[in-house]
Structure formats: structure tokens, C-alpha cells
Amino acid sequence: MEMDISPGLIFTGVAVVVVLLVLIYITSRYKKVRGEGDALIVNGLHRTRASLTGTFVWPIINQHEYMDITRKKISVIRSGQKDQEGEEYEGLHCSDNIRADLKVDFYIGVNHEEDDIIRVAKLFTAHEASNLDRLKEHFQPKFSEALKTAVKQFEFEELLTNRRAFRDAVVSVIGSEMDGFKIYDVVIDKIDQTSLDAHKADNILDVEGIRKISAITAQKNTETNAIRQDERTTIKKKNVEAEANRLQLDKQEQESIARTKREIDIIKAQEDALSAEKREEYQRVTQLAELETEEEVSKKRESVQMEVEMTRIANQRQVAIQEEELNRSVETEKVRTASEVAEREMQKETTVEEASKPCLKPALNVLKLSVRLPAKKKRPRTCVLTSALTVINASSWLRQKPQQKPHNLSYWSQPAPKKMQPANVLSVC
């Protein structure tokens, strides 16, 4: 089944397509500026338009181009040099006729107004508006003339000391008429006096400048010489004062060092003396302690020796006493044994004893008595023993020689034999 399309629907579709094509075409003819530093110049049949953003450019009717409107720097140098020709090799005369060497930088750019942009485009074209050589050729004479006029308003020293006023004077002389351009800034890069040999001797202004330069130079040289002499004098004076101060400081330093050394020596001597005193005191205490120790040792040694000696003496005494007791016991035993022997002899010899019985019985009694006496009574006991032994010996002697017994008294009065004497008896006791 075929579908029928009405003519109205076809017309509507064609109209929509046509409108879209027209819109696309119109949009494609809109030209935007490439960047912030560019301007769009559109030349028409009757007039020229300028835009900083963008505009429509129609084919056949319009022609467009881009212009660089950024800032440009133009430097003007006026420096006087000997044997060099040309206006750029001449310094500018100040109001006191002294030439000044200058270097001034001018920062210019197209004014961001449509009329100024169109004016620049007509005067320079869009391409030459960004050509630095073309701009220098156009503006350098104007800037040089402005510098001459502004410099003549100031003396040379004023140029050096009041650069702000000089800059404002240059801007004021140039004015606002810049053929569509605008001065953004003026920078005074260099201000210096032109060398003396670059002044011309046949130029009245230069002669006046030479005279003034010479006068100022002479005055400045005199002042400079005075300043230098004062400087030398001051320096010499300061050097002398500094040397004196240095010597004084050296003296004070040496005195301080000597005083410090002396104090150190005194302190060291005091410390040495104190150390020696402490050492001597320690040695004295040590020696006293040693002497006390030796004394105690000596006392203990003497005490020990004394005790040993007393023990030895006591032992000797004890030994002597024991020996004496032993000897006494031995002698007593001997006496008892002798007594027993004598008693047995007397019993054997009864006949002889009968004759001498009256004499022997008392002697035996005496002997028994002597044995019973205590040991402390030495002398009585010894005498008794002596008497008893004498009697025993006498009786024994009578038994040995009975034929020789005399009957007279003179015989009995003679001394007894040697063994019967009391001395022998005492030695035995």
C-alpha cells in the first residue's frame, strides 16, 4: 500500500532544510579574534570596521585581516662620541649648555578604541602596525624632538636628581596625538654627561658648556681633593687612635693575663701548701697510728713475754719445788731406809746394842721425831736429823772397833770421823 505525501508537508520539510542551511552558513561566516593582543579589521564597500572580539565577514562584500595591537618598545639613544657623524651621536644640550647622553625607552601600542584601530590600519596597514622598524621610522623623530625640548627645560644636575619631572615633561611634550597609538610608559634608562672631547670648540653652546664643565670640575676637584685630604687626615687620625687603642687594649690584655696568671699561681701555691699540709697531717696521723700500733704491739709482746717469763719462772719454781719435794722425799726415804737398816743392824748386834743401849734409844727416838716433823720447819728438823745421824754413826763406829773402845772420857771427847760430822749430814739433808 503506497503512502500519499501531501504537498504541504513537502514544502514544510524543504523550508526547514533551507533554514538550517542558512543558519549554518551565517554561523560559518562569524570570525573571532585569535587572541587578546589581536584586533579584527573588516573592510567593506563603504566603510572599515574593527573589533576586539569578533564579527560577521561576508564573502565578496568584506575582506578581513588581523592586526597586532600589543605593546612595542622604541629606544631613543643620544650619545655624544668624538669623530662620529650623525644626529644620534650628539648629546642633547641642557639649559646650562652642558650636553647630556640619554637612553630613553618608549613603550607604545595601538589604542584599544575602534576609531584608533581603524586609523592605524589605514595609516600603517594591519601588517606594518606590528613592524618595529616601520614604527621606529615613524616615531623616532617625534620622540627625539620631544627629548630635545624636555632636556632644554632642565639643568644637567636636575636631570640627574629629578628624573620623574623630566619623564613627565617628555610625555607632556609628546602629547596625546600619536596617530592611533598610545604611550603606555616612558623609562629613562641612562642619563650621563657627554665626554668633554665630544663638545665642539666652534659651537658657542658647547664652549659655554665646556667652560661650565671646567668650572664645576675644578670646584669638584678642589672639593674632592679637600675631601680626600680630610679623608687621609681622618684615616691617619683614626689609625693613630686605633693603634693607641689597640696598644692600650694589648696592655690591658697583658695586664689581665699577668694578673690572671698571678692569681692562678697564688691559688696553685695555696692549693699546694694546703695539699702539703694535708699530706703532712695525714703522714703524722699515719705515723702516730703506726707508733700507737707498734706501742700496742710492743705492749702486747712485752705482756706476752712477761706472761711467758712468768709462766717459765712459775714452771721453774714449780719444777724446783717438785724437785725439792722429790729430793726431800728421796732423802726422807733414804733416811727411813737408813733408819730401817740401822734398826736391823742393831737388832743383829744385840750384844753391842746392850752396851750402848742407853745411848742409842734416845737417838732412835730423836730420828723418829725428825721424820714426823713438818717440812716447813727445816732447821729444827735438820738439827734433829743431824743429832740422830751423829748418834747412829757413833754407834756404828763403836761396833766396827769394839776393842779400841776406851773407857776413859778423853776418848769420847775427840772429834768424830769425817763422815760423822754435821756438815756431811747437812749436805745429805
Structure description:
This protein is of the alpha+beta class and 429 residues long. Among the domains are: 69-199, Band 7 domain (Tetrahydropterin Synthase, Chain A, 2-Layer Sandwich); 350-429, no CATH class. Helices cover 65% and strands 13% of the residues. It has ten helices and nine strands. It has helices at residues 7-28, 114-128, 132-151, 156-161, 163-174, 204-348, 350-372, 378-400, 409-412, 422-428, and strands at 30-32, 38-43, 48-51, 54-56, 63-68, 72-78, 92-93, 99-110, 181-193. The strands form three sheets. Strands 6, 7, 8 and 9 form a four-stranded antiparallel sheet that branches. The protein has a three-stranded antiparallel sheet with strand order 3-2-5, covered by helices on one side. A hairpin with a 4-residue loop joins strand 2 (38-43) and strand 3 (48-51). It is elongated and about 225 Å long. 16% of the residues are buried.
What is the topology?
Blueprint: H1 7-28, E1 30-32, E2 38-43, E3 48-51, E4 54-56, E5 63-68, E6 72-78, E7 92-93, E8 99-110, H2 114-128, H3 132-151, H4 156-161, H5 163-174, E9 181-193, H6 204-348, H7 350-372, H8 378-400, H9 409-412, H10 422-428
Antiparallel strand pairs: 1-4, 2-3, 2-5, 6-8, 7-8, 8-9
Helix pairs in contact: 3-5, 6-7, 7-8
Secondary structure tally: strands: 9
Q: How far is the first residue's CA from the last residue's CA?
A: 198 Å
In percent, how helical is the residue content? 55-70%
Order of helices and strands: HEEEEEEEEHHHHEHHHHH
CATH architecture of one domain: 2-Layer Sandwich
Mean pLDDT: 76
Beta-strand residue fraction: 5-15%
Gyration radius (Cα, Å) is: 83 Å
**Structural class of the secondary elements?**
alpha+beta
Subunit organisation of the chains: single chain
- The dominant shape is elongated
